[in-house]
Amino acid sequence: MPTVAPLDLDGHCVAAAFVDDIPFFALADGMVHWLDHGQESLKLHDGLLSATTSAKNDRLISGGEDGKVMGLTSAGVAEELAGIGRKWVTSVAAGPQGALAYASGRNAWVRLPDGKVKEFVHPRSVEGVAFSPKGMRIGVARYNGATLHFPAADGKPTELQWDGAHTGITFSPDGNFLVTTMQENALHGWKLADGKHMRMTGYPAKVKSMSWSAKGRWLASSGAPAAIVWPFQSKDGPMGKAPLELGTRGNLMVTAVACHPTDEIAAIGYADGMVLAARFADQKEVLLRRPGKGAITSLAWDREGRRIAFGTEPGDCGVVDITA
């Protein structure tokens, strides 16, 4: 049976992550806590809105209501990486060679590896940013679609249109597909080679969590009473194919998903705080954590795929060791 090391914090956990294999928990009040031979804490923002890890997993990147983009190392060293005045930084993304993307209102910025900052203004608010795994390219989720920018070049952006509010964004690991979460309880995707649309509908709730399997063959998602896992093995992605449904638990909603770093396994978090692991091949499940005080908001595997950090809405966070 896996063991759970609990960490009771006070408040909503925006992101659980591993930085240099040390578990970090970023809370909405701007506090960040981590477990390195005991609990360490630091006030990083006046209100934290989004967080991720750098491409090398050597620091936590966060954006807040104070208009700052911060980097925090595993040693607890904080550095302001960017600032946009009195606007809220609503999303952040980490790219190759230390590049950063961040957004506020209708604007997205990219800080290139050489320190230069490029600003991109959109007609409507930017809801999410992501880096492509290939080349210096970012995707922006916006109202009525997505926009692709090449920040190092001065050419026109690529506009991908689809009516509705797009709230989050991710590229497939091979860079062939772009997928957004939508306000309308759906995912929408584009095949980037030819702009073909991929509609992934039927969710009873909004999709707030997406995670690609190690080789990009599958995309796991929340927003249903099971983890909905779409197949991306063929050149047209999931079109005409049914998704896997992993970890079905009556009408209890899946609220977070995270795919294992090497194996086709997903950690699945639920509205009651339970965490399961499920294998794609045979849908076998293992209970990792019993229900807690509230919904799982974030899940992250360590590099070895042996531990999972989890964050929750009320703050009863922790780390599961699946090898114990």
UniProtKB/TrEMBL annotation:
Keywords assigned by UniProt, alphabetized: Cell projection, Cilium, Repeat, WD repeat
Coiled coil residues, start to end: none
Keyword Ion transport: no
Protein name: WD40 repeat
Membrane-spanning parts: none
Domain Anaphase-promoting complex subunit 4-like WD40: 261-322
Domain of life: Bacteria
Species, as recorded: Neomesorhizobium albiziae
Subcellular location per the Swiss-Prot or TrEMBL entry: Cell projection, Cilium
